[in-house]
Amino acid sequence: MNYIYNPKKKFDFIKNNINHIAIIMDGNRRWAINKNKSYIDGHKAGVKAVKKIIKYSIICNLKVLTLYAFSSENLNRSKQEVESLINLFLVVLNSDLDILYKNNIKLRIIGDISLFGSFFKNSILHAHELTKLNTGLLLNIAINYGGRWDIIQGIKKLISKIKYKKISSESINENYLSKFLCIDSKIPVDLVIRTGGEYRISNFMLWQIAYSELYFTNTLWPDFNEHSFQLAIKEFLKRDRRFGGS
Known about the structure:
By secondary structure, the chain is α/β, with parallel strands linked by helices. Helices cover about 40% and strands about 15% of the residues. The termini are far apart.
């Protein structure tokens, strides 16, 4: 299944000064419950929604799409569901990696993968290596990610630099710290979309979304499609972004 498709009316993110959109994909399990299906069926339906949004992002020239797929808190779910999620991720990654490459997508998996096995880690490293020179959509997928963890691991890297006298503490500022986070601030997050009807950011990119616009929808993630995406963008374009100014 190719990621490219042709919508009836093309929206251009670049012309509308939208460069980076992040999505908290919530509602897979509730979608499954509503349809009397298993949790894994809900997650599989969520994968289909991911592919639709990637298609839309490519054809409409979005620079960066960041998807919150699996938070560090999700590890508290049942062992069976966690294992099913990881296995599903690996199946999709391995089956679609060549498609991502051919569509000029640069894939980056962000988060703490130290807890996972060597096969999982090697699959991620292979995906990074294969797509690292691609110049189209930058697709960040957050796996076992938490905003607090991200800030802490960035600070640890800074401390190491100071310890070995590669930098001085006086040289540290916001821009410098952001370079050590999973996603730096070169292309700031313009819009954060959360599906599923919850009104919180759930420890997602706490540093990076300080001045992002937030959009919440009751639509469960498996039902989120190109039209849902367009509604979020339409609402975003009404916003008066002042970045803390008057």
